[in-house]
Design a protein that fits this description.
It is built from 7 helices and no strands. 68% of the residues lie in helices and 0% in strands. The radius of gyration is 14 Å and the shape is globular. It has one domain: Globin-like. It is mostly helical. The longest helix is centred in the N-terminal third of the chain and has 18 residues.
């Protein structure tokens, strides 16, 4: 029986580590950090964003999670995220997967998910 993407990413614990690493990567990336650095002083908001992101990826990757956050269009409307910013975010996520020793097939599956979300996030 094939393992789910959720299992291959290390379950909730593995996804939590990936999300933490990704947020750190965003804060260090000059192409997108203006959107993320203010969250350092908004610890409750950052905690909520992290939890929603963990739940979103857990539910979307076959895990036992229930995502209660906003849909992608609503969550990103008014942010005017450019295609370039989106690519930088994807790069930061892929680096987080590398840093957390995620295998190549799982990285390809995550990348596929990220590309499927692009139209719901960019230029909204």
């Amino acid at each position: 029986m094939e393992r789910t993407l959720f299992e291959r990413l290390g379950g909730r614990e593995g996804i939590s580590a990936i999300v933490d690493t990704t947020i750190n990567n965003h804060m260090e990336n000059p192409a997108v950090n203006a959107r993320f650095l203010p969250l350092k002083d908004q610890t409750e908001r950052l905690k909520i964003i992290k939890e929603h992101t963990i739940d979103f990826f857990s539910a979307g990757s076959g895990g036992p999670a229930h995502y209660t956050g906003l849909d992608m269009v609503t969550a990103h409307t008014g942010m005017n995220i450019s295609p370039g910013e989106y690519y930088h975010v994807v790069d930061d996520i892929m680096k987080a997967l590398d840093d957390n020793s995620v295998d190549e097939d799982s990285k390809k599956d995550v990348l596929s998910v990220l590309w499927s979300l692009k139209g719901m996030i960019v230029s909204k």
